[in-house]
Amino acid sequence: MSVDGRAVPRLAEKWTWENNGRRLRVDLRPGVSFHDGTPLTATIAAEALSRAVALPANRALYPSVTDITSISADGALQLVVELSKPSAFLPDDLDLPLSLGPDGVGTGAFRLTRRDSSGAELERFDRYYLGVPKIDRIVVLVSDNLRTSWARLLRGEVDMVTDVPPEAVEFIQNDDIQVISFARSFQFLIAFNARATSFRSPAVRRALNAAINREALIANVLQGQGHPATGPIWPQHWAYDSSVQPFGFDPRGAVSALEAEGYQLQPGSDDANRPPARLRFTCLLPAEFSLLERIGLEVQKQLYDIGVDVQFDPLPPEEYSLRISEGRFEAVLVDMISGPALARPHIFWGAPRREGLHAFGYANAEALRLFELLGSSTNEAATRSAVGRLQRVLLDDPPALFLAWNERARAVRRQFNIPSSGGDPLFTIPQWTENTDRQPVSTQ
């Protein structure tokens, strides 16, 4: 998947729609081999895709695969996917994980040679279909904590740390180490329980969104590593309408809107520690996720300024997930995937069911109609028009308190020349080259 939400060819060379969008014909790339030397054929791909489509987890996270009625091979390198209805999200969802070869043998740039509790080791696959990688070997080491990982990096024992928290970027970066940040198609948000009395009015939800200074949250908590989020559509998507005006920071307007809905400032509750408030609610968050806790504190402070008292309830991850799935919450702070494809926001906000990934119960008839239109149309002009209208609907009737699109950072020793892709440098490792102007290093 490209950063703009378009499906990109990998093992598939191209694909075409037939039978009025009810058949997808996929041409596989010739010359692809598994790590054991077995060539990739349409028959093997059809069997692997059929297994993946049958898995309940994949049917929840990649819902367009439920439209598939059959998968068959047509010749050595063509797949034919028959559908019960047009399913425009299907090429995006065919990015789902596959177990292609026997015993999980893959086709990637590196072949797994060892995996145990201490980590893993991979070696270059010389028959990789996109060209021989420049790096011979990758050793993945497991660290008990980030401090250990940083110490190994600074001592030159490892060449990359895969996840650098925002507050550590300045500490890690130096003449020997580069920090590469990239936008993730995940956003921090507080999802509302659609059945909670306090959140039934769209005006209340709009007011809460207007009360948040997203720039301050990004600066204070994310150390500048993020971008404001005002809706569930990935802003780098090719059909995103940048002319749609997002929520502005307007605390006075938020107060007026809440008062118009009958939320007047009331004295504190029986708990002497609770401040006067016009609206109170409790928000779940997973315990021991320090970044989410800091985001929660910033949101709490900002909402306090308009007389909204939000209390955060940290729960063990298992209980947190159970409470969400059972609908036992008023609101929940999450780090949610929302792109880059339109199929991602659809699985959370595109249907009024309270099950699986639709656990928040959001139901807006026009949003549902537009999501269904996007899921069935392969016409680019129609897609652009529908996305713009959907953005407006979700601003007028927001399903969540949208906070920030987040970023991730990788720290890599400068002995490597890394292609500038704008995305995750992990995906470009086969193209990394060693900087011959510096001293040779290991590839751990």
TL;DR?
With 444 residues, the chain is an alpha+beta fold. It has helices at 42-54, 56-61, 90-93, 146-154, 169-172, 202-210, 214-220, 251-260, 290-304, 317-325, 343-349, 365-376, 380-396, and strands spanning 12-18, 23-28, 68-73, 78-83, 110-116, 119-124, 137-141, 160-161, 177-192, 226-228, 279-286, 308-315, 331-337, 400-413, 416-417, 433-434.
Protein model, in words:
The chain is α+β, with helices and mostly antiparallel strands. The protein folds into 3 domains: 12-104, Dipeptide-binding Protein, domain 1, CATH 3.90.76.10; 111-180 and 410-434, D-Maltodextrin-Binding Protein, domain 2; 184-406, Dipeptide-binding Protein, Domain 3 (Dipeptide-binding Protein, domain 3, Roll), CATH 3.10.105.10. Helices cover 27% and strands 24% of the residues. The protein has 13 helices and 16 strands. Strands 8, 9, 10, 11, 12, 13 and 14 form a 7-stranded mixed sheet that branches. A 4-stranded antiparallel sheet has the order 1-2-4-3, covered by helices on one side. Residues 440-444 have low confidence and may be disordered.
